[in-house]
Amino acid sequence: MLGVTGGIAAYKSADLVRRLKDTGAEVRVVMTAAATRFVTPLTFQALSGNRVHTQLLDSESEAGMSHIDLARWADALLIAPASANFLARLTYGLADDLLSTLALATDVPIAVAPAMNQQMWANPATQHNVQTLRQRDVLIYGPGQGSQACGEEGMGRMLEPIQLVEQLSSLFETGSMQGVKILVNAGPTYEDIDPVRFIGNRSSGKMGYAIAMAAKEAGAEVTLISGPTSLPPPEKVECINVRSARQMYDAVISQAGGCDIFIAAAAVADFRPKHYESQKIKKQSSPLKTIELEQTDDILTAVSGLKKRPFCVGFAAESDHLDRYAQDKLKSKKLDMIAANWINKKNSGFESDHNALTLYWQTGQLDLPHAPKLQLAQNLISFIAEKYHAQHRVKNS
Ligand code: CTP
User: Fold this and answer.
1) How many domains does the chain have?
2) Catalytic residue check, 150
């Protein structure tokens, strides 16, 4: 359940609802009266797919889902943004509107994401309230540092929706990957031609980042090696940023020996320019009408060929013959599993927030249906966990 209180950061909570739903969560939104002056309930209703609750004593809503039913329905209550006023009311146990009453009536974990002017955050009254809430096991997410809507600079910004989702997700860790070290690579690689130009591809890194997050959520120790993307690094994941296929190769090989599972979600360039021009190539320069290319090393094949090799999962993004190409790659790259997807399906694959995968392993295959990438990544991780643990049991028996 998401509680929204009055503050300019309420507009970010609209995105938060979408991202929570991407994890597979069902979201119900409760707004204070002040919150409805910043964003309309209709916005949250459209995004959550559920009626928004605003009134404590409203006969219509009490007849449908009473405040006590709502309190029982939730698995967690996140209040974002949480204003200074709401933190004070929560501290003193007031129950004069629906959200504060729910907070008193529920026994599930409560998390607050404070958002306010930096002076209000620093004020001893607010600090005292936050301290008290912490002692009562209320989780305090943030706030962050930075420029504020009021024009000031300092502590008090609400954390970004993606950070809140990560923190909340950690409450629901499944533990299926507890004690397992997972290496993930993600994103495109850029192969430089000269100081301003490069050969790249359309990978956004979203799938690889979602896999890193899902692996973390499942209790794994995760290292993410990422090509250039615009995504924020996932919380509590070790991130190594690289640019070219060669850099990605070196970074992966240096980590692969120490990991249990390698998931190769990166769209690594297959070719790079044979020569890098250190000066910008001019339009008139005659010898460079064609760029000579050379093949890059295959990272996944190198890892699966290591003496002490991790469980290897590859990806195959194909425009045709998905089944055949994926099975060929499974064999030729000596993989334990490969996740294949179509690149030319609407609302799927590159740049999209959604995807669908078919998993292949030596003795079978499984469809993971179209879903938000984070949800898909969770399903993928739980299936990899199953296969990885089964393989280990066989090895150790
Ligand atoms: N891969 C890799 N290193 C490369 C190229 C690909 O590790 N230099 C990995 C990708 O991360 C992916 C898998 O190999 O997990 C398959 O990548 P893909 O580009 O589909 O296959 P290729 O072997 O490059 O074959 P093709 O481009 O001809 O389909």
Assistant:
1) 2
2) yes
